[in-house]
Amino acid sequence: MTPATAGGPYKVPRQHDNWRSITLAVAMHAVLLMFLWIGVSWQNNDPVEVQAEIWDMKVQEAAPAAPTPEPAPEPEPEPEAVKPPPAPVVEAPPVPREDPEIALQRLKKKKLEEEKAEKLEQARLKKIEDDKLAKLEAKKKAEQKAKEEKAEQEAKEKALAEKDKKKAAAEKLAKEKAEKAAKDKAFAAEMSRITGAAAKGSTGTAAQSTGGRTDGGYAAAIKAKIKSNLVYGSDDDSLSATYVITQLPTGEVIGMRKTKSSGSTAYDSAIENAITKSSPLPKKKDGTVERELELVFKLKEMH
């Protein structure tokens, strides 16, 4: 640097190499702009004051101070979230006081409605119960009627069966009477024939054929045949039954009558079956028979 003239202002000496100075100044400004951009980008760093002096190595005079850069504007603070104001408290309007008479009337009305609803429900339940009882009663009546109809039908069938049974018994009795009458008629005819034949021959033979004392051998022969047809399995030898047998002259049995029971129904039935199976019965040696013959059947003699 050259000293200033006395009494005059300081003057910067003239630079001889302008291009070099311009280049250096541009570089310095570029660096300055870069720092400014970085500072604005960060926003949290304070701006850095940069000063540069230009020196001329030949003149060695101080360059004028660079103008002070204006500070970067601070970023505006973000607005805080605005909270909504609290809702105003609305007080409930005071409940008007109800008239006691109106309240009493309302309670009475409510009670009447409840009682009415209860009565309706009881009536509904009673109707359901009555319907069940009616159905049950109808079912019982139907079952009773069915039983009565069945009993009536069974009674009719039983009466009809009894009637048929009586009719069959009457028919059987009539048939038996007719058969007995026919047998009696045949017996009478046979007796007449025998009697007529005996009148021509000997009267003693006719007397033997119609009655008189029973021949022991004749009775034994009849009992022997009945014994062969007896079916009875008891060993009670005390049993004894007496029967009167009616037969035709041919020995055919046309009837029997029990005059003394043995006390055992089974033994009496066995004797009767044996007599029926033994028809016709044996005759006497002379070929005659006794129309009625009473025989005693002791079990100990029938073995």
UniProtKB/TrEMBL annotation:
<dbReference type="GO" id="GO:0043213">
    <property type="term" value="P:bacteriocin transport"/>
</dbReference>
<dbReference type="InterPro" id="IPR014161">
    <property type="entry name" value="Tol-Pal_TolA"/>
</dbReference>
<protein>
    <submittedName>
        <fullName>Cell envelope integrity protein TolA</fullName>
    </submittedName>
</protein>
<keyword id="KW-0812">Transmembrane</keyword>
<feature type="compositionally biased region" description="Pro residues">
    <location>
        <begin position="82"/>
        <end position="95"/>
    </location>
</feature>
<dbReference type="GO" id="GO:0019534">
    <property type="term" value="F:toxin transmembrane transporter activity"/>
</dbReference>
<feature type="region of interest" description="Disordered">
    <location>
        <begin position="62"/>
        <end position="100"/>
    </location>
</feature>
<keyword id="KW-0472">Membrane</keyword>
<dbReference type="Pfam" id="PF13103">
    <property type="entry name" value="TonB_2"/>
</dbReference>
<feature type="region of interest" description="Disordered">
    <location>
        <begin position="139"/>
        <end position="169"/>
    </location>
</feature>
<dbReference type="GO" id="GO:0016020">
    <property type="term" value="C:membrane"/>
</dbReference>
<feature type="transmembrane region" description="Helical">
    <location>
        <begin position="21"/>
        <end position="42"/>
    </location>
</feature>
<keyword id="KW-1133">Transmembrane helix</keyword>
